């Protein structure tokens, strides 16, 4: 799948915003759709897909984030972003970027991820 490195997480109050970044190797970004997954506290083996973007820019969102999150990509910079607005405490999770069509198994290594914590 190539290397994918997430960044941009942090602590934010409810209603705030964060932008996550996913740095991808060129081969990964050129060939694949990229998805943003999240692993909520206590869900050790559950990674929920919240947003994805295809090679040509088509996007898909989970109902829980629709209207609040926006996924985008900059192929020239080998980057994928997740703009998160109107954050809620239930958005608290470790966020990962990966292949939405062939993600790692639940017990496989997903990468470092980036922690997002939303306080109420």
Side-by-side strand order of the widest sheet = 2-10-9-4-5-6
- Shape descriptor: globular
Question: How far apart, in Å, are the first and last alpha carbons?
Answer: 37 Å
DSSP strand count: 10
The amount of beta strand, in percent, is over 45%
Helix count, DSSP H or I runs of 4 or more residues: 1
Largest sheet: 6 strands, mixed
Show unreliable segments.
none
Helical fraction equals under 10%
Output the structural class. Answer: mainly beta
pLDDT averaged residue by residue: 93
What does the radius of gyration come to?
Answer: 13 Å
SSE arrangement:
Blueprint: E1 4-7, E2 10-13, E3 18-24, H1 26-31, E4 34-39, E5 48-53, E6 59-61, E7 69-74, E8 79-84, E9 93-98, E10 114-119
Parallel strand pairs: 2-10
Antiparallel strand pairs: 1-3, 3-8, 4-5, 4-9, 5-6, 7-8, 9-10
What features would you describe in this structure?
- 5% of the residues lie in helices and 45% in strands.
- It contains one helix and ten strands; from the N terminus they run βββαβββββββ.
- The longest helix is centred in the N-terminal third of the chain and has 6 residues.
- The termini are far apart.
């Amino acid at each position: 799948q190539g290397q994918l490195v997430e960044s941009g997480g942090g602590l934010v109050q409810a209603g705030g915003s964060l932008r996550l970044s996913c740095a991808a190797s060129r081969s990964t970004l050129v060939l694949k759709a990229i998805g943003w997954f999240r692993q909520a506290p206590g869900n050790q083996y559950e990674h929920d897909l919240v947003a994805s973007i295809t090679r040509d820019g088509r996007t898909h969102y989970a109902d829980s984030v629709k209207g609040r999150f926006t996924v985008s990509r900059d192929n020239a910079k080998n980057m994928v972003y997740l703009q998160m607005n109107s954050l809620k405490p239930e958005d608290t999770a470790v966020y990962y970027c990966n292949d939405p069509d062939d993600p790692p198994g639940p017990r496989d290594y997903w990468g470092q991820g980036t922690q997002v914590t939303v306080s109420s």
